[in-house]
Amino acid sequence: MEIIDIILPVFLVIGLGYVLRLAKYLGDETNTALSRLVFYVAAPALLFHGTSQTPLQRSVNIQTLLLLAAVTVVIGVAVYIACARSSPRRRGVLAQGAHRSNMVFVGLPIITYAYGESALGPAAVLIGFMVVWYNLLAVLFLTLPHRQAGAGISKAWIDAAVKTISNPLILGCAGGLLISALGLSVPVAPARALDLVGRTALPLALVSVGAGLEFGKLRAEIAGAALVSFMKLVVYPAMVYAGLLALHYDGVDLEVPVILMATPTAVVSYIMAKEMDGDEKLAGAIVIGSTAASIVTLSGWLALLRFF
Q1: Buried-most residue among 85, 138, 175, 248 (CB within 10 A)?
Q2: Which residues contact 172 (CB under 8 A, 6 or more apart)?
Q3: How far, in Å, CA of 286 to CA of 292, rounded?
């Protein structure tokens, strides 16, 4: 029942978003605006508020960050090599889909329900770091199959660098870390405003995820989506889990990174594929398939972490 109480509310709200789209209360334009509101305003406010209130030594763990970076590279490279016979437009999409986690839209609500708001600071630092790492790897995996187009690749790296530096999630985390490092505190009125805005991020994010699900896109790519979903939802977090156990971590220091990495493939992977000559239909199928399958796998990971 404890696991159900953590997971079920998250996926009920995702289901609500799906029903609202079917009922035409949420069209594509409205959902895009909703997603942008979360990405540019609500989620950065939540991450800033969480990191600014957490002592720096508690929120930053270099060993964990390096482990996550290494495991992510291993997973991405393994899938990229395994898919050597796939077309250039598909190969990078498969590699990206196997590791790029939906940490904000799905991960943060589960972390909040499972571990409370005190876990937001460490989670925010992990998210900020991995957003940068995911962006760099996405450019690598999506451009390598088209490496003969040198000029296009150079432009892709420049665009990725600009987007990474200006990413509102990263800016929110960085701002909160700076406040924490300087030993400052946000005045009461702005802090309460940030808290109010940040609290809208989780429900709005889940509604947006549900409204973006189109299961019709999954049918033609079921095999590829299933394979990548298994790597993303099972193998990737299992490697993170094993690595953290080897470092003798336990409690929240072990569980939060595993849950964040066990979230489904991020919606932004579809956008990246579309912008960088990847197979956007395959990318969309991976997002939808991994989101649906994560109902089961996230429950399994929570059960494993809680009871074993």
Answers
A1: 138
A2: 43, 44, 45, 46, 47, 48, 51, 124, 128
A3: 10
Please compute the mean of the pLDDT values over residues 222-249 and round it to a whole number: 95
| 273, two tokens | 């594929």
pLDDT at 225 over 50: yes
Query: Strand, coil or helix: what is 277?
Result: coil
Beta bridge partners of 101: 265
Is residue 111, in this structure, part of any structural domain at all?
A: yes
Looking at the structure of the chain, the number of domains it has is 1
260 lies in which domain range?
Answer: 2-302
Does the pLDDT of residue 257 top 70, yes or no? yes
Beta bridge partners of 265: 101
Alpha-carbon distance 307 to 164, whole Å? 38
Q: What are phi and psi of 101, to 5 degrees?
A: -90, 145
Give tens-digit pLDDT for 161-199. 777 788 888 889 889 989 988 888 889 999 999 999 988
